[in-house]
């Protein structure tokens, strides 16, 4: 993934990807077929936090959101995990976005991610409605649209990559804005930011942040060889690989 971040999508060749992964280019062709699939697999692994075939909406942390009775707490829990996910995936999604104007494959990938997010955000809107949390007159469809507009890679990248916000600042701003636009006033706490220590939550051990034991490159599955160890995250500016799309696609 470092090559995509350093060189961009168009300039990165499959033989370079193979060389960096320490495998023959024929092996990459066999497993992926083309570099678009390599990038898509990278986005999927980083979004989920691991290589397991479990959709993001079926992860244990999502059960915490479902089980939390208070809509404000549930929203804060969900946003903490959104921040962790966007921090991991944001740099790669910027590559996808920038390439979409000239590359049909990347344009399709961008649209797929948008559809995945809208599907996931409707689930969140339905959960908030079931918790009696949506403000009066706001439908589930409208709530999903507001989530789709605000909790987007476009806004995240504009504020963090372009304007220098920290992911934590983006998270707290988004919670405040969503609280004002989505949730009922009569159940609103005085200080939404104090609901949950989301910094500790997002960094706590879990499927999306745990670092695996050190494993020799030759023993890593092919997908992880090309993406990097799934516990690491991609830093947008300096392309080092330290390692819900909202659903696996």
Question: Topology, please?
Answer:
Layout: H1 2-7, H2 14-21, H3 25-32, H4 35-48, H5 60-67, H6 71-100, H7 104-130, H8 140-150, H9 153-162, H10 167-182, H11 198-203, H12 222-227
What does this structure look like?
It is a single chain. The protein is an all-alpha fold and 249 residues long. The protein folds into two domains: 1-52 and 217-240, no CATH class; 55-206, Tetracycline Repressor, domain 2 (Orthogonal Bundle), CATH 1.10.357. 60% of the residues lie in helices and 0% in strands. The chain contains twelve helices and no strands. It has helices spanning 2-7, 14-21, 25-32, 35-48, 60-67, 71-100, 104-130, 140-150, 153-162, 167-182, 198-203, 222-227. Helix 6 crosses helix 10 (167-182), helix 7 (104-130) crosses helix 8 and helix 8 runs antiparallel to helix 10 (167-182). The chain is elongated, with a radius of gyration of 19 Å. The chain starts with a helix and ends in a 22-residue tail after the last helix.
